[in-house]
Amino acid sequence: MFSDPGYSNGYCRPQEGGAAPEHGALRPPHRGRGRRRGRRGRSHDPADAPASGGAPRVADSEQGVEQKPPPCTDFDMAYFHSYAHLGIHEEMIKDRVRTETYRTAIMRHQSSIAGKVVVDVGCGTGILSIFCAQAGAKRVYAVDASDIAVQANEVVKANNLSDTVIVLHGRVEDVEIDEEVDVIISEWMGYLLLYESMLGSVITARDRWLKPGGLILPSNATLYMAPVTHSDRYSDSIDFWRNVYGIDMSAMLPLAKQCAFEEPCIETISGENVLTWPHVVKHVDCYTVTLGELESVTTKYKFKSMMRAPLHGFAFWFDVEFNGPATSPTSNQVSSSFIESSNNQSTDVSQRKKRANPSEALVLSTAPEDPPTHWQQTMVYFYDPIDLEQDQLIDGSLTLTQSKENRRFMNIHLEYTSGGRSFVKESVMR
């Protein structure tokens, strides 16, 4: 399987140091052609390219210039390597809310998939690619830079789908597909929605290959935040040290707070922990979002506590919807039933439960009141709680920024004011 740098049962092996096959090379019969680009970081300046050249990107075909893809850094390689471990894929597949929602979305959009060309960005084990093949796709390009692509290809062969599903082992930025595609599917969402920056690969695939009017699944996503109270969590991690078997260990408290709450925590909370209606941090329309939008996200918020309770921090969650391009919300049509005013304060209309056409909206939600998923909720805890009265205001701002060191990390800058006191919490999601 590895002796030939071209095809073997639909699998395209990464080429080590060789240039990409020339445009116009022989295609396998009745199939599109997929291949990996040449050496990572290789210049794609026209002056340096061979006369025959590679197939131009769809997005750049009008200008006739192919831009150099971003370099694959050591951090990227470590990220891809982490997804070669089967355990992470087992966790995701066993998340029935996630996996069954994707399968339902594929079947709901079967008329847009049957007989069409699909790209699965970050295919992992290939399960979504196989779902698309089962829905009647003419051809599915299953792209993954991790070595899990080797096993994905074996799964494809074991299910007799090698004539439909072509596994491409490489980055979306590096592989070549010599045809436009009708559908892009990807499970790109990370903790805090944007952590890991995988959405950028979906944008790249969209700009390179998606036909006008093509389908992207999911079509849009919304990130939320809300203040929370969680006394049990605080007691277990912090108050425990005040009396340990009758010994005063309160000297440990500063270190305990740092160890427990310095970085964001991935936990499951319930709706009872949430003190207010949530605020929309960011709405993403996958048909129009740009790479620049993902570098930094800033929002201002204002909450009014619904009860008297200690404020321990903020919870974050997201939902995604699976709509076609005609029904995908625009920047001023948020998928939840919230209205973002010009000053970025969110006004609740009906706590996400009512939508314009509820029967048409297929939603994968990670909200505290919905069935749990492997994403859980992302918690940013304060070192010290703030005692709130009912109807007390909490306002401030949040900035999420891609780390300059590693774009897959996320810097969190949180400012909050309540009861006349102002605070700043900074952390990094690594």
UniProtKB/TrEMBL annotation:
It comes from Eucalyptus globulus (Tasmanian blue gum). Gene3D superfamilies: Hnrnp arginine n-methyltransferase1, Vaccinia Virus protein VP39. Residues 28-42 have a biased composition (Basic residues). InterPro entries: Arg_MeTrfase, PRMT_dom, SAM-dependent_MTases_sf. This is Protein arginine N-methyltransferase domain-containing protein. The keyword Transferase applies. GO terms for molecular function: methyltransferase activity. GO terms for biological process: methylation.
